[in-house]
Give the backbone structure.
Amino acid sequence: MTSYWSYSLMAFVIGAIATSVTIPLIIAFCRKFGFFDQPNQRKVHKAAIPRLGGMAFLPSLALSFAVTMLVYYSQSMYYPDFSYTSALMVIGAAIVFLVGGMDDLLDLPANLKFVILAIGSLALPVCNLAIDNLYGFFGIYEVSPWVAYPLTVLVIMTIVNAINLIDGIDGLASGISVICLGTFVYLYSDLRYVIFTVMSAALLGSVLAFMGFNVFGKIGRMKIFMGDAGSLILGYVLAYLAIKYMMVTEQDVYSDINPILIPYSLFIVPVFDLMRVAFTRLAVGEPMFHADQRHIHHIMMRCGLTMHQTLVLILGLVTFFIFGNLALDEMHVPITIIFFIDIALYLLFFVVAFVLIDRKESLREMMDSEMLPF
């Protein structure tokens, strides 16, 4: 176990250093060629900010993973086994990464981006990395490949878009990703899967280094956003790690946790927010990809919270669902019942939020009326 943590630490440090070196270069590039995220009425920032920070993620991950695994293979009796499926996985990640970068640079149409992402997502089921068991969710267990393959693409697309759309304030998408990646480092090291432990640790180091620039970069005029290149590749890798974990943990005879529970719990907040906003848009007759201020971070700031307070609250909500669901599973609550409990708690959270907003706006109107001259 100690050696696994040493490889994880190596991957983490290399990923963090690579990103810390790359980000200032990206900022200089953005300033030279004018690649900024411009403020508008639906965004919370008030100044133009460089937006290509996520371009550092995949190169840093690749460098850190390659160096760490070379050290691992040189010190062990094992040798890498690369196949066409490994190549397809890399191609899928590259497609997602490139479409994100192109969107940051060229502002691609939403429909075109959706189609390309779907093509990139096909790499996982083609490599037999598919959700072929729901482990009792809604009473469903094993499913046929005809269902598993499109279901896997749908799940990947949902996670990718959820991470992408929740990236609306400093540190939110990256903070959620840090929680997910830290969890996967622990889970995969416990299962003794060194490849996925190293992959998770490498990306964790990269994302944490980026967060330093994103959340605190304003102090040294080094602030940067991750952009779609970053949020899309984060969602893709997280979806990959989640689906892979479901498949490998099923074989762990020492674990009595439902294999779907932790992956599901990690993504509750961004995915539920995606679905809530999507259904709201449909209900009012707006396009699915229409940009607005209905996301959870916008609502929390309407309650009167600052950006950093909103960040802490939402990350706390993510953590609450993870540990709450683990506690329910420990009490042998079925996964379907856990799902409905989560929905009820999530809706209650927003009921309270909208009540607070309504009271705040009523108080403001009352104060404004009292100030009017008679």
